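SEQUENCE-TO-STRUCTURE ENTRY
===========================

Backbone structure tokens: a row of integers, each naming the local backbone shape at its residue.

Task: work out the structure tokens from the sequence, keeping to the layout shown below.
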Amino acid sequence: TIALSRARARAGQADEAVALAQKAAAAGGGPAAASALGYAHEVLGNMAAAEAAYREAAADPAGRIAGNLGLARVLRKTGRAAEAEPLLRQVLEQAPGAVDAYKESARVKIALRRPDEAMGDASTAAALAENDPEAQRLVQEVIVAKALGDVAANQIDLAIQDLTALRDKNPELALARVGLAKALIKRGRIAEA
């Protein structure tokens, strides 16, 4: 029931996922059921319920990794990235090869406006999971975040250089084109934007 709940949540059938996870929890599914319930609520957009379920999962040593990872994701999504960072450090200490933890850590560091540190985590995730398109895309997102930070720091030419290279390498990447347009406009090169 737990695996089915997660599959339904990934498929966008969050209501059904919540019902399945609640059924698993009632049947004594323990921290795995609580984590599945957290994920279903997260997909549904009910972040308070997701947070409560992830906290329940993390309270049990058997569910600490999945619970803390889910909780960190919810904290970031609700504007509390600083609270998520220590949870992710704990996850990575307990599971050093946890690709999802590296990806979430990169997202948290982007939210905290530390793209240089985010690049390390995103690159680690991409190296550990070479066939994971999300991990590969995250590296690109970090490049854009770093470049936009460069624009804010008035290092516009460096940002234009990095974003042009990213756009040329990945012409379909809208995020790179938008970031480049912002940098060009800031430089006063509106016609090129």
Observations:
- The mean pLDDT is 95.
- The longest helix spans residues 133-152.
- The chain has eleven helices and no strands.
